[in-house]
Amino acid sequence: MKGPKATSIAHKKLEADMMKKRKADAKKENASKKNSGAPKRPASAFFVFMEDFRKTFKENFPDNKSVSVVGKAGGEKWKSMSDSEKAPYVAKAAKKKAEYEKAKEEFNMKINGNGANEKPEESEKSSSDVHDEAEQEASS
């Protein structure tokens, strides 16, 4: 009975390989959809904090080369901070987000052709009412 067991394992390996290839192909398709000229998303308040924290940590521990130690220490410090201590970083992140939104709108307008993505004003009449009125005007 060892024979069938080995073939079923081999069959599962082939299925796993096929799934990996499919996932890789899907990732390639998604990557090609992104526009390289699009503005990058802004950093969150935590990452704005980490920019400053890395500098101070490096000054205090110049011989430390481990990225994970810096990240863990930064995460612990962020968790221990009060909301009032986090406020300057949250404000900086909000400012960066506002700049990003503005840049994103400009980029979308440029891509879509100067405001082509704006929706036309909707009236209270349904489209069928508008077509009925147009037909009445044409017949009279």
The tally of beta strands, per DSSP, is 0
Biggest sheet: strands, sense, closure? none
Beta-strand residue percentage: under 5%
List low-confidence stretches.
116-121
Q: Mean pLDDT across all residues, rounded?
A: 79
CATH architecture designation of the domain at 37-111: Orthogonal Bundle
Question: What's the layout of helices and strands?
Answer:
Blueprint: H1 2-33, H2 45-60, H3 67-80, H4 83-112, H5 127-139
Helix pairs in contact: 2-3, 2-4
Summarize, please.
With 140 residues, the chain is mainly α. It has helices at 2-33, 45-60, 67-80, 83-112, 127-139.
What does this molecule look like?
The chain has 140 residues and is mainly alpha-helical. It has a domain at 37-111: Orthogonal Bundle (DNA Binding (I), subunit A), CATH 1.10.30.10. Helices cover 75% and strands 0% of the residues. It has five helices and no strands. It has helices at residues 2-33, 45-60, 67-80, 83-112, 127-139. Helix 2 (45-60) packs across helix 3 and helix 2 crosses helix 4 (83-112). The longest helix has 32 residues, at 2-33. The model is unreliable at 116-121 (pLDDT under 50).
Write out key terms for the chains shown.
5 helices; DNA Binding (I), subunit A; mainly alpha; flat; single chain
